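User: Can you write out an input/output pair for a complex, sequences first and structure second?

Assistant: Here is one pair. Inputs:
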Amino acid sequence: GQQLNQSPQSMFIQEGEDVSMNCTSSSIFNTWLWYKQDPGEGPVLLIALYKAGELTSNGRLTAQFGITRKDSFLNISASIPSDVGIYFCAGQTRWAGSYQLTFGKGTKLSVIP
Amino acid sequence: NAGVTQTPKFQVLKTGQSMTLQCAQDMNHEYMSWYRQDPGMGLRLIHYSVGAGITDQGEVPNGYNVSRSTTEDFPLRLLSAAPSQTSVYFCASSLMQNTEAFFGQGTRLTVV
């Protein structure tokens, strides 16, 4: 099956710092998605990317769909304590007549006030 | 607007017991799916359904059954629970298979 390599696995940063995380794969994806999971909750979609090269922002979050369609990154600027959580990338592709969504293993973000 | 509702939130089972994890959505979404989340493993697809009466296997289907008799409900059944099924289970729904997935709050299952 398809695999996504998400890095880093965890990050400890000071409040106000910028954050960068990324996902890479040997497979091509049609869509890249970034989710955030708060403790005890389900993942919530942050940003969806549909075209190679696409750069999309959502407040302090910026994500890009790599031009090779095999990677994506997520940046968070000026981190705040509520940014704490696990961030997942997910790649979607069409395979065997259906859409398959593959998740990365997550980046656990801790923000030190 | 309830979105995706999962019950129960927590459950402890003995090995060999059976149970059903409930999932309901009120958004009239066609596509529903079940994932399990284990530490360091991300989310792995168990089963999915593209509409009422249609289900299919995901990446890790063994030990789980599903059915989709209505658009709203997509229960996940464990017929004979095993310790390896200790995990957090998430149900998700989306309008279509290739649109944004909305997740429930999860069911934390422990099999002893």
